[in-house]
Design a protein that fits this description.
The chain has 1 helix and 8 strands; from the N terminus they run ββββββββα. By secondary structure, the chain is of the alpha+beta class. The protein has a single domain, classed as RNA polymerase II/Efflux pump adaptor protein, barrel-sandwich hybrid domain (OB fold (Dihydrolipoamide Acetyltransferase, E2P), Beta Barrel). It comes from Corynebacterium lizhenjunii.
Length: 88
């Protein structure tokens, strides 16, 4: 998923590459004069890379980050264990 700036301003990141995200987690904030907008991820995934540096100027539509598909990990395993515990 490509995460883009909603408008021109200064970007400040709240995530690091490799970090797992849930839908709605804030990837960055774009700040303009008297305006600050959080930029959330539309779905779960892992931050693949950040396209800008902290506190750099961006234009509306500029790429901020790429979030890749999340792999099924311990959370999925925990759900399976819970199901088997209920069957006992």
């Amino acid at each position: 998923m490509k995460i883009c700036a909603p408008f021109a301003g200064i970007v400040r990141y709240h995530v690091q590459p490799g970090q797992r995200l849930a839908a709605g987690d804030v990837v960055a904030t774009v700040e303009a004069t008297k305006l600050e907008a959080p930029v959330p991820t539309p779905g779960p995934g892992v931050v693949q890379f950040l396209a800008q540096t902290d506190f750099s100027d961006v234009l509306g539509g500029d790429l901020l980050a790429v979030v890749g598909m999340a792999e099924v990990g311990p959370a999925g395993a925990g759900a399976s264990a819970s199901s088997s515990e209920r069957q006992d």
